[in-house]
Amino acid sequence: MRGILQSSTSYTIALSFFVALGGFLMGFDASVISGVVGFVENEFNLTDWQLGWVVSSLTLSATIAMLCAGPLSDYFGRRVILQSTAFLFAISAFLSAWAPSFEWLVIARMIGGLGVGGALIIAPVYIAEISPPHLRGRLVSLNQLNIVIGISLAFFSNYLILGYADNTTKFSTFDINFSAWRVMLAVEFIPALFYFIVLFYIPESPRWLALKGDLEQARQILEKTTGKEASTHDLADIQPWQNPFAWIANWKKLFSPSMRKVLMIGIVIGITQQATGINAVFFYAPMIFEQTGVSTNSAFLQAVAVGVVNLVFTIIAIALIDRLGRRILLNVGLAGIVISMFVLSYGFYSASYQLSEKSAAEITEQFKLPLDKPLSNEKFESDLDFKSMLNNSLGKEDAKKIQRDAINASININTTLILFGILGFVACFAVSLGPVMWVLLSEIFPNHSRGAAISLVGLLNSSASFGVQLVFPWQLNSLGNATAFLIFGSVALIGLVFVFFKLPETKNKSLEQLEKQLVQS
C-alpha cells in the first residue's frame, strides 16, 4: 500500500481518498438503520420514542465524540484518532448484529456513534491540512462523497438482503425478518476492518506535525502533497506549538471577540444542515415512502433511488465547488430545499384516507385482531384523523400493528409529487449543505483553534441531528406528515436568508489567508 501511494502522481488525492473512507463507514453505519427500523420495531415491540432512540442513539454518542475528537486529535494526532474510529466501527457492527434486546442494540449503536463523531470531524480536517488551496474544496468533499456512497450502498445492501430473505429459504430456519436485519447490520464489519488496516500506511498531518514542532517531517510530507515552493510558504506561516495543554487556551481563544464572526457562520451552517431534516429522510426513508401507500419492497427500492440521487449530485457538487464557490452552491441548494420541503408538505396535506369495509375486514382478519368497534369507512382528510380512528377502534397497540397495511389500503395521494419532493430535497442538499458545510468548517477557522472549533460546531450539528432523529417518529404520528415537512422547509428558509446576507466566499485562498480575512484582530 505504501509503495503504491508514494509512487502515485496523485499522492494527495490518494491520501484524501483513503482517509475519506471514514466518511464511507459513517454514511453506511448511519443509514443502514433505515432498513432495520421496521423489523426491530416489531421484534422488540418498540414505542415511537424507543424507535427514535434506536435510530438517534448513534448520533447522541457521535455528539460526545465530536466534542472530544478535535482536542484529542490536537494532542495525539489526526491519524491515531482515525484509527480509533475504524476500530469502533468494527466493534459496533459485530455487537449490533448480535443484539438480543432493545437496550443491547442501543448500546452497540452508541459505540458506532463514537466512531461516526471522530471520523466526521477529523477526516475533513486531515484532508484540508494536506491539500493545496486550488484543490482543497474538491478533496475535502471526497469525505462527503464517501459518506453518500456509504449511504447509497447501505440502502442497496438492505434492499438486496431483504429480497434474498424473501425469495429463498436461507433465513427461514429462524424468523425471516429477525435474520435479515442482523445481516444488514453485520455487513459493515468488512469495510471497517479494511479502513483500520489502510490507516497504518497514511502519514500524519503535516500541519499537526508543524504545530508540534516537527518541521522537518512536516516539510517532507507537504512537499509531496502541495509541492516544494508551497510547502516552504505554508511552513513559514505556521507557528510551532509544543505546549501539550495548549488546547485549553485554544478553547478560550475560540470564544474571544475576534472569533465571533467565524463562530457565528460555523454554528448557523452546522445547525441548518441537520435541522432541514436530511437524516429524517435518510434514516427513515422506507417508513416515509410507506406513508404514501407503497409496499415494503417498493419503499426499499425508492430508498435506493434516494441514495443514487444523493451520490450523483454530490459528484456534481465536487466538480463545481472550486469553480463556482461555496456561497453560490449554498444559496442555490437551500432555495431548492425550501421548495422541495414545501412540495412535500403540500403533497401530504392534499392526501385523503378512506378504508373500504372489505379492506378493513381483510386487514383485521390477517392480524387476527378483535374490534372494539368497526373500522370507519369515512373519508379522512388528514393522516392524524385516520390514525386516531384506528386507535379508537383497536387500541394503540393493535392499531400500530396494522397501521402500514391500513394506510396502504386507504390512502389517495399523488405519489409522484411526493417522490419528486424527496428526490429534489436530497439533490439540493447533496449539491450544497452536504459537502459545502464540511469544506467551510475546515477553512474558516484558524490553525490554532481548528480542532476545538470544528468540535464545537460538530457538537451542535450532531445535537440537531439527534433531535431530528429522536423526534421524527413522534412528529409523524403527533403532528402529521404535512406539518413535519413544513417545519423543515421553514428552517431551510431561515438558513437561506443568513447565507445570502452573511456568508463570504472562501475558494482559492490558503488557510492562512482566510484566517487574516475572517478572524478579527
Structural account:
The structure is a single chain. 78% of the residues lie in helices and 1% in strands. The chain has 521 residues and is mostly helical. The protein has 3 domains: 11-202 and 259-349 and 416-518, MFS general substrate transporter like domains (Growth Hormone, Chain: A), CATH 1.20.1250.20; 205-245, GTP Cyclohydrolase I, Chain A, domain 1 (Orthogonal Bundle), CATH 1.10.286; 352-412, no CATH class. The chain has a 3-stranded antiparallel β-sheet with strand order 2-1-3. Helix 8 runs antiparallel to helix 18. The two termini are 45 Å apart. The relative contact order is 0.15.
The low-pLDDT segments are: 1-9, 167-178
Question: How many DSSP E strands?
Answer: 3
Write down the Rg.
24 Å
Largest sheet: spatial strand order:
2-1-3
Average pLDDT score: 82
Q: Which topology of the largest domain does CATH recognise?
A: Growth Hormone, Chain: A
- What class, by secondary structure content? mainly alpha
For the termini, the CA-CA separation is 45 Å
Give the second-level CATH assignment, the architecture of the largest domain.
Answer: Up-down Bundle
* SSE ordering: HHHHHHHHHHHHHHHHHHHEHEHHEHHHHH
Q: So, the CATH homologous superfamily of the largest domain?
A: MFS general substrate transporter like domains
Q: How many structural domains are formed by the residues? A: 3
SS strand fraction: under 5%
In helices, the fraction of residues equals over 70%
Largest sheet: 3 strands, antiparallel
Q: Look at the structure and give the CATH class of the largest domain.
A: Mainly Alpha
Query: What would the principal axes of the Cα set say about the shape?
Result: elongated
